[in-house]
Amino acid sequence: MRFDEAYSGKVFIMSRPDYEESDAVIYGMPMDWTVSFRPGSRFGPARIREASLGLEEYSPYLDKHLEEVNFFDAGDIPLPFGNPARSLDMIEDYIDKLIADGKFPIGLGGEHLVSWPIFRAMFKKYSDMAIIHIDAHADLRERYEGEPLSHSTPIRKACELIGPENVYSFGIRSGMREEFQYAKESGMHMSKFDVADPLKEVLPQLAGRNVYVTIDIDVLDPAHAPGTGTAEAGGITSKELLEAIHLIANSDVNVIGADLVEVAPAYDPTEQTPIAASKFIREIILGWVKK
Fold this sequence. Notes:
Pfam family, one: Arginase
Shape: globular
Order of helices and strands: EHEEEHEHEHEHEHEHEH
Protein name: Agmatinase
CATH topology: Arginase, Chain A
CATH class: Alpha Beta
Radius of gyration: 17 Å
GO molecular function: agmatinase activity
Enzyme class: hydrolase
EC number: 3.5.3.11
Strand content: 15-25%
Strand order of the largest sheet: 4-1-5-10-9-6-7-8
Number of helices: 8
CATH architecture: 3-Layer(aba) Sandwich
Structural class: alpha/beta
């Protein structure tokens, strides 16, 4: 299940060599075909893997070591350049396979539209699922410049798929007026600006539920993550996002999968963005993957 023909040879630190024996699978979605500002997130998965090589394998936050989790890095799905519809179908087909094999999927983006086929695949298995969405942007548009396949639409599509009352957005600080009106009127949960404190209030409501988590790196302030396509001032710190990941890890929700998207390395010569992203992925592996 590794995409050898398109694979660079670099894997996330301490990735195991055996897909069949793994509990979780990391996979890349190198797509930025619909971005509205700065492209380049298709290079995010590879740079996150490379940055992971500088990580310690031990998390002092969770008192756990990566040797305790059996995970496999499948490389990047070889998506057809410039063809979003076909790319999304390929992602959904791959997630269908991971679910059928009982794997915990951990996706690396890529633009945020790549989360949409994951939602579709997960919903086939978990009809009662909820989504936790951590992002600077509402992503609630029906279309962008007339185009329904856009990185500004996946959460609106999620609301229409699983019901807005099952979608929980955090950290939102950017969007059209109509998007915020939709959030208010539809029954979805939207927490503006902050993440950790509103999560503390919401997680008890989600206890026992199957929850998919999608994180856009631009929820961080550009001071902490300049390497993203649509940076937004006024965001949270890396420490606050780590706190949110750990709150979820220590909650009673059943996390069924996760993705981290919109790392665009070209805009961050310091590499602090992929370095931060790789640490978030380490904490996700250690905190959310159940054997």
